[in-house]
Amino acid sequence: MAKQWGSLSQGGKIASGVVALIVVCACCAGALALAANGNTSTPRASANSTATRTGPTATAQPPTATAKPKTWVTVKHLAGSGNSQSDTFDVKTGDHILTSCTASDSANLFIADLYLKGESAGNNSPYAELVSRANEPCSKDTYTVQQDGATVYLRVQADSIQWTVDIQRFQ
């Protein structure tokens, strides 16, 4: 090749040098473009490819859990007919206690109270008086716990009625 280069005229040598310079510049420009996109090892997509690149590749992040919206949830359901006393359960400040009843005849006594664990319904004042209804139609009532939460039990006095008590918590 040295003989061929030596046999070229001055104009031929200049033309060959210009072509070589253009090839080197084109290679450098391509390498700079790949480096600017942060991609030095992945070949470009073909013209008929459906993938589109819009920017540098982001580092994969684990999916973020979407916060579940809060709602009123029944945490304790009590139901019965006539007089009853429940096992103990916990209430918290802000809990809603929903009461309802259905009368089967003209007798209409419905008293529902919460008592602190260990206290006697006959000797102590109730922790919360939920319903005190005598000779009145049944209805639905809501009591909101305002005092500090506690472990309590439900005591119901009811004549010939079906009743329910639901403790709901916002969570």
Task: Please supply descriptive tags for the structure shown above.
9 strands; alpha+beta; 2 domains; 5-stranded antiparallel beta sheet; 36% strand; Jelly Rolls; 2 helices
Number of strands: 9
Radius of gyration: 42 Å
Estimated share of beta-strand residues: 35-45%
Distance between the first and last residues' Cα: 84 Å
Round the mean pLDDT to the nearest integer and report it: 81
> What is the CATH topology of the largest domain?
Jelly Rolls
The CATH architecture category of the largest domain equals Sandwich
Structural class: alpha+beta
Number of helices: 2
Q: Under the CATH scheme, which class of the largest domain?
A: Mainly Beta
Q: Main beta sheet: strand number and arrangement?
A: 5 strands, antiparallel
Estimated helix fraction = 10-25%
> Low-confidence parts, pLDDT < 50 over ≥5 residues?
none
What is the approximate shape?
rod-shaped
| Count of the separate structural domains | 2
| SSE succession | HHEEEEEEEEE
Descriptive notes:
The longest helix is centred in the first third of the chain and has 27 residues, at 10-36. The radius of gyration is 42 Å and the shape is rod-shaped. Helices cover 19% and strands 36% of the residues. It has two domains: 9-36; 72-170, Jelly Rolls (Sandwich). With 171 residues, it is α+β, with helices and mostly antiparallel strands. The protein has two helices and nine strands, in the order ααβββββββββ.
